[in-house]
Amino acid sequence: MKKTLLAVTLASLFPLAAVADVVVYGKANVSLQSTDEASYSTANGNQADGSKVELLSNASRIGVKGGEEVNSKLKVIYQFEYQTEVDDGTNGSQTFGQRNIFLGLQGVAGTIMGGHFDTPTKVAQEKIDLFNDLEGDITNIFKGENRVSNIVQYVTPTFGGFAIAAAYTSEENDGTFKQAGTPTNGASVSFSYTSPVFYGAIATDQDVEADGISLVRAVARLTLGPVQLGALAEQYENDNTGYDEDGALVSILWNLTDKWAVKGQFGDSDVRWIDGEAASVGVDYKMTKNATLYGYFTSVENGMNDATEPTVDTYRDDTYGGVGVDFKF
Questions:
Q1: Would you call 19 helix, strand, or coil by DSSP?
Q2: Handedness of CA 306, 310, 316, 317 (dihedral sign)
Q3: For a Cys-Cys bond, which of 14, 46, 62, 195 suits 41, CB 3.0-4.6 Å?
Q4: What is the pTM (predicted TM-score) of this model?
Q5: Which H or E element spans position 12?
């Protein structure tokens, strides 16, 4: 991350003091993927199978962030981050889609901020998901990967590697109409420990996704020389339907050299879908400090109906393979 031409352009348009701490950052992640998606219905025997080759933009983004000191113990901070589609230039009907955006205060007592951004539970995942933003992303079989609006968050300073993040989400409703299963006032909290060798976290969401829905997530990462081992476990409950399920995921990253790395990941979960499984293997080649060439293969299987349904009669069995480049700036 560094100041770029955009920061210089901003400085030419606004007083220098206003943009003195502007950092422009982002990444372009594009892959060429072979997709084979199949589904089967036990109710009527229908089977669908389709394959294609597609160019994908995997959560490519650009953002600006920075701040200004109020005094030696307090700083105003901000971030405006947007996702853009490198492959076709559209994100729905827009060129840019909002990602993590906030305004806050950072000081010796911690950080408080408000806006639209990832919950503490999502952030607690850390680097466990080795195929984040690709087809092997844990969102295929888990919930809790929420980026929400109208969220206020406080993060404590780090004490001996320990930190707490607590967030409140507001539905901004006067209470005149309330329906079960719809967005509501919620809370997300995480407690984490970080060291050079070990990372661990426990996080929970209460009513963040919708009224009556709760989630607990535990995460651990162990780094042993060139090898990184990761694990995630999740418990999900929906009081509106009586649905109560769980899931687990393990991952491994092995840095063979300073350039080459191999990785693998497997998850088994009933949280998002019934009988959900996702397995991925991949290889990374670090071309430069900021540019990585990668290849991957992913298999995803699950019941197509949402797991809150009493029965499942349609199943999914999809495979994906591709190569791509991830460039950070």
A1: helix
A2: positive
A3: 46
A4: 0.85
A5: helix 5-13
CA 160, 166, 171 angle in degrees (round to 5)? 170
Question: Is residue 204 within 8 Å of residue 188, measured between CB atoms?
Answer: yes
Secondary element (H or E) of residue 31: strand 23-41
Tens digit of pLDDT for each residue in 46-81?
666 788 999 999 999 999 999 999 999 999 999 999
Q: How far is CA 6 from its chain centroid?
A: 26
Closest C-alpha to 135, from 31, 261, 275:
31
User: How far is the C-alpha of 134 from the C-alpha of 121, rounded, in Å?
Assistant: 20
Query: What type of residue sits at position 37?
Result: E
- Phi and psi at 260, nearest 5°, equal -105, 140
3-state secondary structure of 6: helix
Structural contact between residues 38 and 320, judged by C-beta atoms closer than 8 angstroms: no
- Is the pLDDT assigned to residue 298 strictly greater than 80? yes
d(CA 115, CA 133): 22
Residue count (the chain): 329
Q: Which two tokens stand for residue 264?
A: 């693998």
Name the token pair of 42.
């036990």
Res. 171 pLDDT band, cuts 50 70 90: confident
d(CA 28, CA 67): 25
H or E element, residue 118: strand 110-118
Output 261 or 302, whichever has higher pLDDT. 261
